[in-house]
Design goal:
The complex is a heterodimer of chains A (112) and B (116).
Chain A: E1 3-6, E2 11-14, E3 19-21, E4 23-26, E5 32-38, E6 44-50, E7 56-59, E8 62-65, E9 75-77, E10 86-94, E11 97-102, E12 106-111
Parallel strand pairs in A: 2-12
Antiparallel strand pairs in A: 1-4, 3-9, 5-6, 5-10, 7-8, 8-9, 10-11, 10-12
Chain B: E1 5-7, E2 10-13, E3 19-24, E4 31-38, E5 42-50, E6 53-56, E7 65-71, E8 74-79, E9 88-95, E10 105-107, E11 111-115
Parallel strand pairs in B: 2-11
Antiparallel strand pairs in B: 1-3, 3-8, 4-5, 4-9, 5-6, 7-8, 9-10, 9-11
Classes of the chains: A mainly beta (112), B mainly beta (116).
Amino acid sequence: GNSVTQMEGPVTLSEEAFLTINCTYTATGYPSLFWYVQYPGEGLQLLLKATKADDKGSNKGFEATYRKETTSFHLEKGSVQVSDSAVYFCALSVRRDDKIIFGKGTRLHILP
Amino acid sequence: DAGVIQSPRHEVTEMGQEVTLRCKPISGHDYLFWYRQTMMRGLELLIYFNNNVPIDDSGMPEDRFSAKMPNASFSTLKIQPSEPRDSAVYFCASSLRGTSSGNTIYFGEGSWLTVV
């Protein structure tokens, strides 16, 4: 079946550190891949996405590249800020199946 | 745009009581999703609708849960009778033309349910 595996948290970093959150997937066919972010007390919101292999999604300094050969979609940011503290979800959807499958989420704490 | 609107934001109820959660999707969106979020199980898809018709309810945990979408602008998720293990955050989300082509889904702020 289709599934997403992402690194367990919490991840704690100092401000301006480099961030990587790993995400790998299993899917039938060619999925679209997403990163969603959830700030405290809020719903999830789309951070970035990529719909085909080698695409790079980017937003707010975050980037992720769709790697078909390694079935991965790792999230990176060169210099994190305190305001990036949130829970990050990797997710996928496949063609002809109109639902998104989410990973369990990775909680990120950024220390000033 | 007002976004996805859910009510109530917070609900505390006693075991055995009926709980009804409500959702208004973004105008014009033809897909509506109900998710449940807990620490133990993460984010689970309960059910989704396309043009008001339930498409996949395989995530509904048991017969105590039911969902309806009587029109394009309103959906309910009902739990009857409620149990403490139903305590969770319930999210409603909507999208235009589904997610199979990489379309975005938009989440409401959630309904925080506590069953005591």
